[in-house]
Fold these 3 entries.
Entry 1:
Amino acid sequence: DEIPTVVGIFSAFGLVFSVSLFAWICCQRKSSKSNKTPPYKFVHVLKGVDIYPENLNSKKKFGADDKSEAKNKSAMPKNSLHLDLEKRDLNGNFPKTTTKMQGSPDVDNSSPKHFAERKKDSVSPDSLKSITSLSSEDKQDKLGTLFFSLEYNFEKKAFVVNIKEARGLPAMDEQSMTSDPYIKMTILPEKKHKVKTRVLRKTLDPAFDETFTFYGIPYSQIQDLTLHFMVLSFDRFSRDDVIGEVLIPLAGIELSEGRLLMDREIIKRNVRKSSGRGELLVSLCYQSTTNTLTVVVLKARHLPKSDVSGLSDPYVKVNLYHAKKRISKKKTHVKKCTPNAVFNELFVFDIPCEGLDDISIEFLVLDSDRGSRNEVIGRLTLGSSAEGTGGEHWKEICEYPRRQIAKWHMLCDG
């Protein structure tokens, strides 16, 4: 009788020990996972409401107003991030607790003295000269001013950009004499991080107040980055109008002291000064027996700068036309950051008629942009009605079937 009792006691102790060990292992794994540096994450904060990944919750919010945080600190529990969901409006937005003056760029600063010191640094003549030199035409055409703030959160290893507002934008709609502005922001030179604000309707002084948080960017790399703001006006029926741009090199900008408030004049977009669009090398061969046209996109050279980074991401789109109607299309792969691209890609098109009399082929060289519409760098058309080298190349193809003929062509405006 004593042996079963002893066995039962030892079994109970073993079960309790196993459960305790399992719970301890789970706690250790959870704590070690929360202490790991999070991978790159992007968080968009709209109108001061903070949105964090579940494993990045913190006591301190660095996207909201410091004044409102200090004011509500005594009423909020220390270990909770309180958002009263019942106080949201029909659109899901939270009502603002502090009054904000229109056009005031210093709502996020807790100390007037600190703001005055940082403001003075941000608009110094030396920093303005280092960013860009305005021509006399740019000074005459006022495109407005952009207000924003920069901050680096060392605890989260996050780079924070708050686009506050823009003032004095020109009217892009001649009928209503207003604009529908929004802003696209790109972190150069890699162009990996592209974001944009919402569109604000019919205003020349848009107040965006949108915060973009980029996780996983080391502070040591901040000095090598450049911020590019593109100010645009939305157009429902055609391509959006470009109002201007702002380029901010972060070299020399110190973010270790806290949030830095800045404002910059919006300048005209950097339009290509040279009329040349570069050259494209293509090879074509007409197979009369199979009634097919073989097209090889070989190389492109001397492509112009497509953005402020000075580099393009070109690819070629090939369109086949029969009697001015497109019947087939192909495209090459994108070549990253190069003005002299090597494609070496072959395409075979079936010709729906006998001969090449009503056939033409169009080559579009485009710059790949994940954040917006791809911009056309240059265009080339080959056909019986084409002028210049395009018509000569097409004539040789028709006269010498089954022969691969390659030629360089100058690209025309897109």
Entry 2:
Amino acid sequence: DLDECAASPCKDHQYCLNTDGSFSCKACDASCVGCTGEGSEKCNTCASGYVKEDEKCTDIDECNLPEKVCTKENQDCVNTSGSYKCVCSEGFEDKDGTCVQT
């Protein structure tokens, strides 16, 4: 078997998997910017919104940072994978970018 992966035939956001007589390109984990294999522990570097922790790229919980990320009145922070979103608190709704009581 010829190791086609030695020539790095895959794109930057993929890793190469050598198979018998061939190869395939697999997508890197969402937490990675470039990778050497499957999973968040094989990242070259961590994507935005992720930090290297115990040799893995793990999600940063922006909602638990010392500095508040959702600063508008009556607004709550919701952590998402690699990011966060600001939503109006319960009993409030978004009216032109402001949370007003429903």
Entry 3:
Amino acid sequence: VARWEHKTRALSRGFGSPRTACYCLGAVILLLNCVRSHCFTEAMKSQPKLEGLDSHWAYYSGLAIMAGCPVALHADPPHHFAEPNEKPFVHPTGDYFGILMEAKVTCFPFSILDNPMYWGSTAVYLGWSLM
């Protein structure tokens, strides 16, 4: 959808501004993430458990892995840019809407990881699976 927007600017015209369109697309992405998480949870509930993973150590290991995932909530993709007074919500898809930033994001978590959102999502689902 973002690439289609970059080519056509149809969402920006439809919503009246690139920022409004970007926020609406972001809201749809967040809602779809909730649906995906719900489906994942339901699928995990219906699966048989391995005896070795049906224990306190597996539960708390999964919880510990998930506790380390605020990195995923804080992060934006590294090829996006930050502007001094810009709302961070715009960054993941902002460049597709013509909302270009001035400087590359180099602060935490990008100072230690190249793709913190991917690592965070993977850790969340791994932790949830263990739990």
